[in-house]
Amino acid sequence: MEYSYPFSTDWSTEEVIDVVAFFEAIEQAYEKGVTKEAIMSKYRRFKEIVPGKADEKRICNEFEEASGYSSYRVIQKMKQADEQTKIRM
């Protein structure tokens, strides 16, 4: 992996760490699979930090351009999955 994660200079260190953890969960969904519960908790925290839809879309698009992994597709699959499902792209 030779790319950087998108973040805002307005965020605290803890917020940056939590956003990176969300994007790592997206990577994991593509590479190994991740439980719905794990991705959902990281997404909820991400939405606390980035509450606006426009900002969410911009940041997720930056991540997708850098990594090739679509946060949108993982979140859509998570929303449709049963509780005990492992999300794998």
From TrEMBL:
Family annotation (InterPro entries): BH2638-like_sf, UPF0223
TM ranges: none
Domain of life: Bacteria
Matching SUPFAM superfamilies: BH2638-like (SSF158504)
Coiled-coil stretches: none
Similarity field: Belongs to the UPF0223 family.
Name the record gives this protein: UPF0223 protein B1B05_07425
Organism name: Domibacillus enclensis
